[in-house]
Amino acid sequence: MKKVKTVYDHIRSNNIKTILLVVLFPVLFIALVFLFTWIVAPAETAINTAINVAIPTFIACAVWLLISWAFGDSMMLHSAHAHEIFDTDDENREIFRAVENVAIAAGLPCPRVYIIDDDSMNAFATGRSPRDASVALTRGIIKKLNNLELQGVIAHEMAHIGNRDIRLDMMLITGVGVTVFAADMILRMAMFGGGGGNNENNKNNTGAILLMVWLAFTVFNMIITPILRMAISRNREYAADATGAQITRNPRALASALRKITTDSRVECLDKVKSMAAVCIAYPGGPREFTSSLMATHPPVEKRIERLESMA
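Below the sequence we write its predicted structure tokens.
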């Protein structure tokens, strides 16, 4: 007899998959630099090149991450044209209380609550940690979902906060930015011969190595990174669905909310902010042409609903 997966099984499975995918980033990056360099240089030189490239890249990622850490959440809220609400606002007191109640059920501090003046249905969470997190909801999602469905959506966003998914996504976006910038710098160095001294052979050899390193960066940025990042995003959505169901003890309510949300999830002000697609509960951009499942930010809604209903 086939074992029925519980909420805890789903959460554990997706967390393990996420850890494995995150570990693959530095492993594949170093391996690509080594393999491409090995084409034009001895193995020892290729190993030294991989180390010399990896160390400054990781340091740059750490510095850039600190900058993102300080300003990332405010930039996201600004991009969504979100404005904060308080429990003193008569019009919004009920929404604030709903977020507060779900936060209590999740065992987390109450986040700041923001409203996006858009009639579509979407939501996202942001913040460096549970203590300074924010939840943003569109006017449409507040109007069109019933109380239980809205609680399910809020619980999903609280799950992202509790699971530290925002921090993880910030790290991935930072890594992408650094490697794209590094690739551009390396290509410029390769075009000018790499500064390998006066000997023409040294110049040519250094230029060839730099060109191979640039090629490794390009393959990593254009192929490896998007596939791994989207795979992590999909796993975190599954995990947030499962954790949200655990918080509310009502997976069917979130499943029902997802059915409604996917009929009108576009948030126009986010059409050009592609980096925010992964943090929303559903894809917030305009109508999409055919996209490979490997490059999708979210799992198919049918699979998400199927998993949630299996937990009921």
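The mean pLDDT is 84.
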